[in-house]
Specification:
mainly beta; four-stranded antiparallel beta sheet
Length: 115
């Protein structure tokens, strides 16, 4: 499985960015997909049932979505704040009895928000 992120960049506070993560290879039918920052700080997750979850710090500002036909995961980020500055990583994994287990990670895309 390979994941390639894109869409990062530099914006001013209050601006928006949309991150994309193109996924190739075989994925378990009961999958999780997610966005993280600083490698392990969970931002948003979506699973194969369409259920989503968000970190409290991004609720009502970020939206995770997926286009199964394009094998692409998205993160729409609005009302960006300087504290959102980070390297953002997408990840793919599987649903387990105790939550999601992420097995594959992208290389990351940098988001920088200036005040």
């Amino acid at each position: 499985v390979q994941l390639v992120e894109s869409g990062g960049g530099s914006v001013q506070a209050g601006g928006s960015l949309r991150l994309s993560c193109e996924v190739s290879g075989y994925i378990n039918s009961r999958y999780c997909m997610g966005w993280f920052r600083q490698e392990r700080d969970e931002v948003a997750i979506i699973d194969s049932n369409g259920s989503t979850s968000y970190a409290d710090s991004v609720k009502d500002r970020f939206t995770i979505s997926k286009d199964s036909a394009k094998n692409t995961l998205y993160l729409q980020m609005n009302s960006l704040k300087p504290e959102d500055t980070a390297m953002y990583y997408c990840a793919v994994g599987r649903i387990r009895y105790d939550g999601c287990a992420f097995d594959y990670w992208g290389q990351g895309t940098q988001v920088t928000v200036s005040s």
